[in-house]
Amino acid sequence: MATIVIHQIKDWRQLQLENKQKFADKTLGFVPTMGNLHDGHASLLKQSAAENQLTVLSIFVNPTQFDQAKDLEYYPKTLEQDLALAEKLNIDFVFVPTYTELYPDNYNYKISESILSKQFCGQHRPGHFDGMLTVVLKLLLIFRPNRAYFGEKDLQQLNLVQGMTKSFFVETDIIACPTIRDTNGLALSSRNHQLDPDEYELATQFATLLRTKLSDKDIHDSLEWLGFSVDYIQTQGDRRFGAVRIGKVRLIDNVQLLHKTTHHKEGTVA
Ligand code: PAJ
After folding, report:
1. Domains of the chain: total
2. Are residues 105 and 196 in the same domain?
3. Are residues 171 and 218 in the same domain?
4. For residue range 9-61, what is the model confidence (pLDDT) as tens digits?
5. Which of 36, 107, 123, 142 is buried most deeply by CB count within 10 Å?
6. Residue 82 C-alpha to ligand 1 middle, in angstroms?
7. What angle do CA 34, 3, 95 make, to 5 degrees?
8. What is the pLDDT of residues 103-156, one digit of tens each?
9. Cα 266 to Cα 222: distance, rounded to the nearest angstrom
10. To test ligand 1's pocket by mutation, which of 154, 162, 165 has the most ligand atoms within 8 angstroms of CB?
11. So what's the pLDDT on residue 1?
């Protein structure tokens, strides 16, 4: 079946009404994204397609989670390519809403979390997690999927979404998916496409240094010396989290520190 692209919530409702048979007793998997899809997103889509009879992908560059106007403006948009990938992966539905479709209230109502969302990235991106949680809750309520797939690359986001669904009794299982990396160790990210070749080379040092036995402070200082502007490098338990900037591009990552753990388990709550 060809991928069906939906722009409006009413079209999704209509589709369900007209195809009761098709939806009956089928499990629905959901993969929310901001587009500019790469192999990291593809791994989530493949896992959803393998574990559910139907999959919905959403593509929406959510303005309420951008704390800087320039970051939003420069965010790469490649809808044609993204739809071609969805088709290739046999994804059933792609939801591509407008701002007014998702925010009829113009963001007067929002979800906020008061502890975890203030740490790590939250300290450096005011309002970011409010915007993220709000749009994710809206999307989960529109599609009411059995499972929704999130990458461990954004572990703080994943943990916040898990906490939110538990707090608001949302009956969707939040599934953690491993971080997909380039052969040089750099976590795949839409933001990597904004780096020039020299900056990309430099970015690989971020992933490499995060895994070393150096202290957080020594990694911080080494990265600054190399030319990064460091937001934070912070170890919690056996996991090290980091966020850096190269020029206008912000990169985040987290790795499990094997020298700090006795058993290897990816994606545990930090
Ligand atoms: P986006 O950055 O497009 O990421 C969509 C999903 O892909 C997230 O769950 C993210 O963790 C996952 N992902 C990104 N890079 C990955 C990689 N290298 N390996 C594995 N998974 C990866 O995260 C967002 O969009 C937004 O905040 C969103 C949840 C869509 C809300 O607007």
Report:
1. 2
2. no
3. no
4. 999 999 999 999 989 999 999 999 999 999 999 999 999 999 999 999 999 99
5. 36
6. 14
7. 35
8. 999 999 999 999 999 999 999 999 999 999 999 999 999 999 999 999 999 999
9. 26
10. 154
11. 78
33 C-alpha to ligand 1 centroid (Å): 6
Domain closes at, from 177, 210, 235: 177
- Tell the residue number behind the tokens 């809403």, with chain if given: 97
Domain that residue 212 falls in: 190-256
Q: In what order do the strands lie in the sheet with 249-256?
A: 229-236, 239-246, 249-256
Does residue 269 belong to any structural domain of this protein? no
Residue 268's contacts (CB-CB under 8 Å, 6 or more residues apart) are 237, 239
Do residues 90 and 56 share a domain? yes
Residues 16 and 140 in one domain: yes
Q: How far is CA 131 from CA 123, 204, 241, 247, in A?
A: 15, 29, 21, 24
Among residues 177, 210, 236, the one where a domain terminates is 177
Q: Same domain for 142 and 209?
A: no
pTM of the model: 0.96
Nearest CA to ligand 1 atom 4: 33
Question: Does some domain include residue 24?
Answer: yes
